[in-house]
Write a structure and sequence with these properties.
Number of strands: 0
Number of domains: 1
Structural class: mainly alpha
Helix content: over 70%
Number of helices: 7
Strand content: under 5%
Length: about 240
């Protein structure tokens, strides 16, 4: 099947989103937000956020913009891969959009935490330490929301990687690695949900996904879609 100009444009858009979204999300999480969150110390976490409220708010905004770009990515990938199998591409896009919705809702907990740390008259019924603990609880709820979102992210990425493998639009090793990395993300997140003590491994189980998305993004920008790709039969919805 001939690759259309629409597919090539979508591939460039996807490539840019993979790289930019990865860079901005890591900056927000590791540089702006990460140093403020102290595990098992609600008081210190609250003090850190109160002292660096602007940085905390900026990290929340960056995450929101990143999730908005993820919705664009889902549409771009659907545009590229729907000739391979429209039904699977549509399912993958819905999974990625569900991921965007869940992660966006999780950011709401950031603003709830900030509200508890604000000097507001109606919060005087609570003492300072109670407000700090409540703020930390909402941050923890937000982290749980991220885990739920990552499950759908991994499912959608697995389906899209399968279509990449069938299409031949990119090298097979990248597509195979994408399936592996996406399954690791999904299963690793579910394992942490079931066994919270596994959370001590941190974000290491996301490393394969990092290399996959960066590698795929670079390939789509530099090489684009391979003309000799041979998609399988189209499945209409």
């Amino acid at each position: 099947m001939t690759i259309t100009p629409e597919q090539r444009t979508a591939a460039k858009v996807a490539g840019w989103i993979y790289l930019i979204a990865m860079a901005t999300s890591m900056f927000a999480e590791l540089y702006l937000r990460g140093p403020l969150i102290v595990s098992r110390d609600a008081v210190q976490t609250a003090l850190n956020i109160a002292a660096s409220e602007r940085a905390f708010r900026i990290s929340s905004v960056i995450h929101l913009l990143t999730f908005a770009s993820d919705a664009m990515l889902a549409v771009a990938l659907y545009t590229i891969l729907k000739p391979v199998n429209r039904s699977v591409a549509l399912l993958a896009a819905f999974w990625r959009l569900a991921d965007c919705g869940i992660l966006t809702a999780a950011v709401l907990n950031d603003f709830a935490a900030l509200r508890f740390l604000a000097s507001t008259d109606y919060l005087r019924a609570f003492d300072t330490q109670q407000l700090q603990v409540l703020a930390r609880v909402f941050i923890s709820i937000g982290a749980a929301g991220y885990q739920l979102g990552f499950v759908f992210l991994g499912l959608g990425s697995t389906a899209f990687s399968y279509l990449w493998l069938r299409s031949g639009y990119i090298p097979r090793p990248i597509a195979v690695w994408g399936i592996f990395a996406s399954l690791v993300l999904t299963l690793g997140t579910l394992a942490i949900v079931i066994f919270p003590t596994l959370g001590v491994i941190g974000l290491s189980y996301m490393a394969p996904m990092f290399f996959y998305e960066v590698g795929l993004g670079l390939w789509l920008l530099v090489k684009g879609l391979r003309e000799h790709g041979a998609p399988g039969p189209t499945t209409a919805v």
